[in-house]
Amino acid sequence: MADVRHSCVDVKRALVIEQQSELPGLSGAQRTHLQARALSRLLKATPSAAAATSLDGSWNPLMTTINEAERVPMSHLVASLTRLCNVADSSTPYL
């Protein structure tokens, strides 16, 4: 469980940066820079998500969702990542 929680620390940081990229008044360059930072931070969560999956296959959705960020806009993954990390931070897997 420590690996998945460690992964979620990076995921949550990435989501904060992604949210900042959606603020009004940003230039295109600022938005692009923040989105690149968010993706970079999210991908740092991959090793711990992979370790968590190795120990418990039920965490495969977290690792898979993180990896999908290289193919789809991160904004489309926010809800899934948030929900998966809420489960990781909870004492119950039934949120």
Kindly describe this structure.
- The chain is mainly alpha-helical and 95 residues long.
- The chain has one domain.
- 69% of the residues lie in helices and 0% in strands.
- The chain has 5 helices and no strands.
- The protein has helices spanning 2-20, 28-43, 46-55, 60-68, 78-89.
- Helix 4 (60-68) runs antiparallel to helix 5 (78-89).
- It is elongated and about 45 Å long.
Question: Which secondary structure elements does this structure contain, and how are they paired or packed?
Answer:
Elements: H1 2-20, H2 28-43, H3 46-55, H4 60-68, H5 78-89
Helix pairs in contact: 1-2, 1-3, 1-5, 3-4, 4-5
**With helices defined by DSSP (H or I, 4 residues minimum), what is the helix count?**
5
- Kindly state the percentage of residues in helix: 55-70%
State the assembly state of the protein chains: single chain
Strand content: under 5%
Tell me the number of structural domains.
1
Distance between the termini: 16 Å
Mean pLDDT: 94
State the order of secondary-structure elements, H for helix, E for strand: HHHHH
The total beta strand count reads: 0
Rg from alpha-carbon coordinates: 13 Å
Shape: elongated
The description of the largest β-sheet is: none
Unreliable spans: none
Broad structural category: mainly alpha
